[in-house]
């Protein structure tokens, strides 16, 4: 969604929220999603981006608003908390609307919280984001250590990563008080927790959620700055992962590579440098009701398919992914080729629609992946396609979220085949959007529902939650993958419906709000150690 905002005469907003602190004149709502202190969110991506809409001196400015995932989910929480959000200002007009402290009040016109933008130079972006974050940490954590070497000497990338982490830490210090809860998101900020710790009052709480996998100790050894990263992350009071496996691997790495750390594997605690870091797992969910409602609101699903040149008559397979080598797209194409080899009767009857979103373009591994995927689609289509039908319809075009929900709703089978994935939200989005042909108005969230089948890689965080009722796949075993697709398509309707009902129960119960509540509950317990574990429905620390 885009809002138009007039540019102020001096090119700046009035900066009323430049102090960035909480607003004493605004009462806190006790029914808010429950952040126990004054909230400061730190993330790489920002919730609102300002862009110029036209050329010239009087050009107007438009605002891109978050449409999905974590940013959209967190936005109302930060609004209710009258908090502060610190993020990279990557929009062309971002700094035309900020005040002298790089702050702007958002959402536009509502002024509910302060967005503090960090201005990064081209070199900083190249080294911090494209370099260390996405050509060292991303491949490391997704178990592609070979790709790190492609970057060559990444010393300068790490120096910039440290510098950018310092700049974010300085920004946090401008806003923090002893009551602050600093909540850091993801792998772009591996050094920030300790840097923030050094800059803010001791009583403030620092929590961090690591949204991607954590590597094995053997892979972690490929990163020569591993010790500094572990030290950085142990500046947190709380460190969250989606699933237990990643938390345990983190503890193993600390034990192996940080001599002075004391690891309690039973309680998931690490004592290091006069501080204690508690680990917790909580699988992130989605805003399931919104996907359900959006899918029900689609008037003409057939018209959506026709936009992609897909006949409404076909059995539909669907893939929706960022064009990332961790998503297992070539492996999926290989399985589809095997499927069409083995099932000639499915030709012209089954179509696979693959939506791929270009991502981190310019990084060689991503460029190569794009070329490989496009050429494999062309090859497979020329092998099996006819004048009227293509087995794989491939698009990199932007698909609005409501249309995406329509495609999820129409899909007979959704295929998510990552080689490794921290969570995987699209699998959950498919489930929440699987509403069948039920009434569009007046339906309770979750009811009625459809009978789509989810093929889900056993290597995703989502599999730990959804594996029992999905069809589990090993993305690297082409024959078995193709056979799993056959099984899914041959499954009786009653079995498909039973599975989808269970999947929906899981996705609706453990949704985005439940995940955030569990994070805040864990944080609250750090403030008051006497609070009982029984109060927390979502988060997990190990059973002893
Ligand atoms: P990752 O975080 O690695 O990209 P996830 O599956 O966890 O993978 O999340 C991807 C998010 O991006 C989902 O919320 C999904 O709906 C969204 N997305 C992916 N492709 C598109 C698209 N073409 N249009 C809109 N949203 C998309
Ligand atoms: O899943 C990890 C993640 O960094 C998300 O936080 C983000 O939305 C997604 O990948 C897209 O990556 P980027 O922010 O690099 O475009």
- DSSP helix count? 18
Bound molecules: adenosine-5'-diphosphate, 6-O-phosphono-beta-D-fructofuranose
Low-pLDDT residue intervals, each spanning 5 or more residues? 1-33, 532-538
Round the Cα radius of gyration to an integer and report it.
24 Å
Rounded mean pLDDT score: 89
Instruction: Report the end-to-end length measured between terminal Cα atoms.
Output: 47 Å
Which outline best applies?
globular
Instruction: Count the beta strands.
Output: 19
Percent helix, as a range, is: 25-40%
Structure overview:
By secondary structure, this protein is α/β, with parallel strands linked by helices. The protein is built from 18 helices and 19 strands. A ten-stranded mixed sheet has the order 6-7-5-2-8-9-10-13-12-11, sandwiched between helices. Helix 2 crosses helix 4, helix 11 packs parallel to helix 12 and helix 11 crosses helix 16. It starts with a strand and ends in a 17-residue tail after the last helix. The site of 6-O-phosphono-beta-D-fructofuranose has 8 residues, from loops. The site of adenosine-5'-diphosphate has 14 residues, from strand 14, strand 15, helix 13 and helix 14.
